[in-house]
Amino acid sequence: MAPAAAKWEAGVVLTEHPHLSQVVPSALAALGVGGFADTLGFGEASRVCVLLIDGLGWELLKAHPGDAPVLNELRSSQLRVGYPSTTAAGLAAIGTGLSSGEHGMVGYTFEVPGAGVMNALRWCSHDDGGDLRGSLPPEQVQPLPTTFATAAAAGVHTSVVSEAKFADSALTHAVQRGARYRGVHALGDLAARTLDALAEPRSFCYSYHSQLDFLGHVYGPGSSAWRMQLRQVDRLVESIVEELPPGALLAVVADHGMVRIGEKLDLDETPELLAGVRAIGGETRARHVYAEDGAAADVLAAWREVLGERAWVYSREEAIEGGLFGPSVSDRVRPRIGDVVAAARDSFGMVRELAEAVESSLIGQHGSLTTAEQLVPLAVASAR
């Protein structure tokens, strides 16, 4: 029997909370697009915006009510983001309406058979930084129809409002193709472009803000810098809510929460964890471990022995059977999952000081199964 991979530390079953992947299908159902169910109870709307604040965990939001009074006053509930709790997987959940076992963005970095370990945000080789767009076209790595393309085909005015530098990125093509991209540079034009998009009749707009996550990584979640940014995010939400056109609905969500790292273990300085290992992917809080042929069982035993109670450690089969990557995992995606999957508990970090120098230095991290990383808000406002 597989371990209870679908449970987190507090004993709460993951599936008791709606999944982030349900947000856009519910939004499109509210707009009357056929084939989608409004599982989140949005009701009918003529215009919908999903605003994703990168890194805004439910626990962090509720711990700082004075810095986000508008967000805390909106009608809100909890969503779970699934595993791994990282941006590539979260954006793909929004863009496909599916879990990571189907859309295939199973980590910040993960192995694609025949191509090595890729960085999904930068679309480059994790080993040497080489551009992989030619050898791994976005439409092949994530070939499923996007929610944006489906909405546009149904006659919905569909927009993505996000940073201008991401307009032609490979990840944008992988999970957001089909929408009109409206590039922005700061909070002001993010609000203005979002409202412009909602001025269209029967419109769906997805808007994205990244800087709260960035400051959480650099200074730590809950730090003074992070809280000041949260105040700006709250003002952004207020600006949009104040100008919502009649019939519009705004749903504010996030792709993951964040924890402040305490104890670290340098994987590359721990020989017991390298024996039989040909590649390591994932990130500090959520690791994929790819074993040499015939070594998977020994690698699993070694990682369990060394990490002990500091991490949940599963074989690929246990992780899939336990539902970590969603209710189903496609044959296309299965090889991308490590032979061993290690998810950090508490504030533990599995770093690689030399191979991942920048990532290993960050104070705030995410990716694992704790409630701080998994639970995010679904805050809703409407103009009737």
Automatic annotation (TrEMBL):
Coiled coil stretches, renumbered: none
Single Gene Ontology MF annotation: hydrolase activity
A Pfam family it matches: Phosphodiest
Protein name: Phosphodiesterase
